[in-house]
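DATA SHEET
Item: assembly model
Revision: 1
Owner: S.N.
Input lines:
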Amino acid sequence: MDLGLRGKKALICAASKGLGRGCAMALAREGVDLVITARSRETLEETAGEIRRETGVTVIAVTGDIVTAEGREAALAAMPEPDILINNAGGPPLGDFREWDRDQWIEALDANMLTPILLIKAVVDGMISRRFGRIVNITSGAVKAPIPSLGLSNGARSGLTGFVAGLARQTVQHNVTINGLLPGPFDTDRLKATVSANAAKAGMTAEEFLKARAAENPARRFGQPDEFGHACAFLCSAHSGFITGQNLLVDGGAYPGTF
Ligand code: NAP
C-alpha cells in the first residue's frame, strides 16, 4: 500500500531510540523527510545516519530537551512547517503518589501533557492552511487502563488525551487529524528500566521478570518498535483523513476490554 507520503515533512520528537525511532524509520521508508530530536547527541546522530543510509531521505538531527522552551524552539526552527508531528518524550518515574510533591507533578505535566500541546499549537494553523496535517501523540496503554505504579503517567497523559479529544474534532474538516497511539509493552530501554525497578520488588532477576512479563501478554511477547512505527505511519498516511480523536492501542491485546 502506498501511504501517499512521499515528499512530506515530519517533526518527530524524542526519536533517537525506542518508539520514536520506530516511527522515524517507518515514515522515512515512505519517503518522508525528517527532523528528529533527543538530548544525547551521539545516539541521535547515529540514528540519523542509519535512517539516511537505509532510506535516502533528508534527516536533520536536533539535539535538545523537547520539554524545554529552547528545545522546542530549536526543533521548530529546523522544521517550522511540518506536515506530520509525532509528539513523544520520556515517561515519568514509577512510584507512590504519596512521595510526589508539586514539582514532580509539574515535571510530568510538562513532559507528557504541556509539551505536546505547545507543539500542536505551534504547527496546527499552518497545517490547516495547507489542508494537510497528521499529529500523533505517543501516550500509553495507561490512558485506557491505568497502571498503579505509574500515577504520574496515568494523570498527565489523560490530560493530554482529554484536550486532544476536543481539538481533533475541530481540525479534521481541514484534513488535519490528531490521534493518540497507545503502546503496551514494547522492547525498548524504557521497558527495561521500569522492569528492573519492579523485578527487585518481586524478588526476581530482571531477566526472569522480563520473561514473566512477556508471557502475560496475549501475544506472549513484547512489541517491537518497528511494529509501532508501521501503525504510526498508517495514522499519518494520506488515507487516514477520516480517523481523528482516536486512541489506538498497540499492545498485543493486553487491554482486556471489549471496547
Ligand atoms: P526509550 O526507548 O527510553 O526512548 C526514549 C527516546 O526519547 C530516546 O531517544 C531519548 O533520547 C528520547 N528522549 C527522552 N526524553 C527526552 C526529552 N526530554 N527530549 C528529547 N528527547 C527525549 O523509550 P520508549 O520505550 O521509546 O518510550 C517512549 C514513550 O512511550 C515514553 O513516554 C514511554 O513512557 C512511553 N511508553 C513506552 C512503553 C514501552 O513499553 N516501551 C509503554 C507505554 C508507554 P535521550 O535520552 O538522548 O533524550
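QC remark: The pocket of NAP is lined by residues 14-20, 37-40, 43, 65-67, 71, 88-91, 138, 140-141, 183, 185-186, 188-191 (CB under 6 Å).
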